[in-house]
Structure formats: C-alpha cells, structure tokens
Amino acid sequence: SQELEQSPQSLIVQEGKNLTINCTSSKTLYGLYWYKQKYGEGLIFLMMLQKGGEEKSHEKITAKLDEKKQQSSLHITASQPSHAGIYLCGAANDNAGNMLTFGGGTRLMVKP
Amino acid sequence: KAGVTQTPRYLIKTRGQQVTLSCSPISGHRSVSWYQQTPGQGLQFLFEYFSETQRNKGNFPGRFSGRQFSNSRSEMNVSTLELGDSALYLCASSPAAWVANTEAFFGQGTRLTVV
Q: What is the pLDDT of residues B78-89, one digit of tens each?
C-alpha cells in the first residue's frame, strides 16, 4: 500500500519567515492534495497537483510536484500567525476510486 | 454553494452502544468517503461510496459500516462501541469517480467520545 512521509513533523517559525514542508510517496503519485487543519476541525482544501512539474499558488502558499522524485513540497512565504495549524498531504490511490492516503501531518506554529 | 455537512458535530456515547453519523456532500457530488482521525494513527480511510456503491473499504472491523442514499447523502454506523473508537470522523465529497482527476472537500467532522 502507498505510504506518505511528511517532514518535518513540527515546525516553529518566526512571523515573516519562509518555510517548506515536504511530502514523499513510496509509490507513483497520481494526484497530490494539500490540506490545512486547525485542531479538532475539518480539513481545509489548499490545492491539488496532478502532473509532474506542476506548481500552484494561493495567496502566500505555493505547492510543487516532482513526479520523478515522487515528492511534493509546500512553501509558505512571509509566514503569519494565521498560517498556524496542521498541514496534511494526501495522495490518490492508483486503483481508481476516491480513497486518499495521508501523511502524518506537519504541525506549524508561527511566533508573532 | 454549501460545503460538506456532517452531523452531529459532537457525540458522547457509552461502550457497547451504537452510533450513526451523517454526511451530506456538496450538491452534485456523487462520491463520499469516510475517514477516522486519532492522535495515534492519524487519518485512516474507512470506506468510500460512489453512486450508492461501496467501492473500497479500509482495514476496520465489521462493526464499522456505511451506506449511501440515492441523493448521495451517506451515513456510517459503528456498533458495539469501544473506547478506542473515540475519534474525529471526517467525510469527504468529490464529484468524479477517481479522486486523482478532481478535488475532494472535507466536512467539519464529528467528534465521537466513547466513555
């Protein structure tokens, strides 16, 4: 079965600093999702990447997909306290269907 | 457009009881998937439905079951509750048959506490 490894597991940054979260898959990536979660709440959809080399941005968050490395990265520029939360990457399964496999998450704290 | 709606938001049940959780997907979405989230195991896939058919099932005991109705709303049921079933249960809604081709949106979840 597919496994997703996220790094780092937790991150504390000073407000205004940039940061990167990585997500590496043990298998070929067919669709890679990034979500943000506040503790105890639902997952907020950030973006989805489908093709190798694809890069998407939303406000100060940019995600890239490296198909060859089976890896995706999420980059936040000029972090703000509102960026704090848990970031989760999820990947589509290769047997079709709507099952997603998730990484363990990265807990981000932004110090004002 | 309304998002994914899960009810109830919070539940407290006693061991041995059963519980039913509900998920209404985004209008027009035909797929609903269910996940269990715990601090120890993270997000784990339970099962997924597309047009009333269960297509995939995760590695959970038979006490966990679900169904999808013709209007795409879905319910999941857990019988003979155990303390370890305490978790945040999340459902995801998607319009297409393969999630690799489309976006998937989650509800706010149902927090189940078993005492």
A: 999 999 999 999
Residue B18 burial (10 A CB sphere; 0-12, 13-18, 19+): exposed
d(CA A17, CA A108): 12
CB-based contact A16:A111 (threshold 8 Å):
no
Beta-sheet pairing, A19-25 with A4-7 = antiparallel
Residue pLDDT, tens place only, B17-41: 999 999 999 999 999 999 999 998 9
Please report residues of B whose CB lies closer than 8 A to that of A99: 33, 45, 48, 56, 58, 99
CA-nearest of A56, A74, A79, A52 to A6 is A74
How many Cβ atoms are within 10 Å of B15's Cβ, its own excluded?
A: 11
Give B-chain residues touching A30 at CB under 8 angstroms: 100
